[in-house]
Amino acid sequence: MAENNTPEPTLRSGTLGTGDIAFFVVSAAAPLTIMAGIAPFAILSGGIGAPAGYLFAGLVLAVFAVGFTTMSRHVGNGGAFYAYITKGLGRTAGVASAVLALFAYNACQIGMYGLLATSAHDTVQMLWGIDVPWPVYALAGVALVWFAGYRSIDFGAKVLGVLLVAETGILLVLAVAVLLKGGAHGLDLQPFAPAHAFSPGTGALLAFAFGAFIGFESTAIYRSEARDPKRTIPRATYIAVGFLAVFYAFVCWVIIEAFGAGQVVEAITADPTSLFFTAAHDYVGAWAADAMHILIVSSVFAALLAFHNAINRYTHALATEGVLPARLGRIHPRHGSPHTAGLLQTALSAVVIGAFAAAGADPYLQLLIWVNTPGVIGIVLLQALAALAVPFFFRRISHREGALRTVVAPVASVLLMAGALYLVISKIALLTGASASVNTLLIVLVPVVLAAGAVLGRWLRAARPEVYARLAADPEEAAGRPDRPAEAATV
């Protein structure tokens, strides 16, 4: 029988440039959805200092990005949080973080199908008077996301690029109209004044603000498909954080000016979900409000696709290392996509949606909020652990990086991330609107998943030492050809 020497298909290396990766990350944040759907609640909870809150959150994440991107130049593994935490804090901690990352990213992605269903249902009913049950929209979204993720990564980048330009474009049209008309009572910078930026509601505001950046760190997941990843990954990370911080702050300030600093909270209290649509209608025209309704649906779809792609690549990285079944690491021979991982993620989404639909749950208040919340908490915790891993990693290798990048910024980031985590947890009632028992369950899920991952790591160490020994290895290390000092990962 002839031996098959056909090489196994791999991810398409050298496919993604800085702009492509930045599109993935910014699309995952869903700027239009964050502004139209979440920013009104941030203003309601924290006051008109909301624009400053988004800038502050962006600054904190930029500090995190210093150590994160510096480490990315020395880590060739595509496992992102998992790889970084493994190389800095040890293999057991790395496996625990991998399990938490899969849980958190899936929670963020699957929960968003509730938002897709709600947005699509309301838009179709408003524009065409057709009432379709929400699970139909959610499951249709699952199918479309699967198809786009099944295709090549450059196809996904093009789709996200078009959708991102459209959703940011309608917000910029609104912003220009408000600026040209001078807002409700003339333009001013009251929202950035210290009295408003540091008000009693700042803590609640920051809980919303940090949640608006979730997914920006996923730049490192695309390392295997990036062109010149040592340059591309850091650039894309800084571009994503910088763009989101400035864009969020600018648009949030504009919407405050559209109603007036003294009247915007009253307008939100009357109807928080219509704030942006009312402004679009009044300042641009009815067509802009209708377009915004449609583009919110596409905005959520773009976020779902970006998270789907990130999850699939995380799953692929763990499967190729033996943490997950090898079958999940299979690459489509034509499209170069991790299609088997994509099928699993799609099936999981459909099962969760089906369960919530069968239980008669609300797609927004329960599928979105309840499923998303532990995902947000998990990702912020992973960011803190990744920042903590940076100084430990650089103590173990020979390098020429400065102390500012390898010690000062990462340590500061750990403290800032710990503060952000505290804010998110302490203000969880504002985020979920759920009972104390439900909130407690949502919080406890995160350490439980992390502990389960640690148990898996210890099992791998005892039962599969050969797999455990090569966890988070860079490609050249895995091939037995290390070209730089390897980290000395310990338990």
Automatic annotation (TrEMBL):
The keyword Membrane applies. Pfam families: AA_permease_2. The chain crosses the membrane at residues 21-46, 52-71, 92-114, 134-153, 160-180, 192-216, 236-256, 284-307, 340-361, 367-394, 406-425, 437-460. It is a multi-pass membrane protein. InterPro entries: AA/rel_permease1 (IPR002293), APC_superfamily (IPR050367). Gene3D superfamilies: Amino acid/polyamine transporter I (1.20.1740.10). The keyword Cell membrane applies. It is found in: Cell membrane. Keywords: Cell membrane, Membrane, Transmembrane, Transmembrane helix. This is APC family permease.
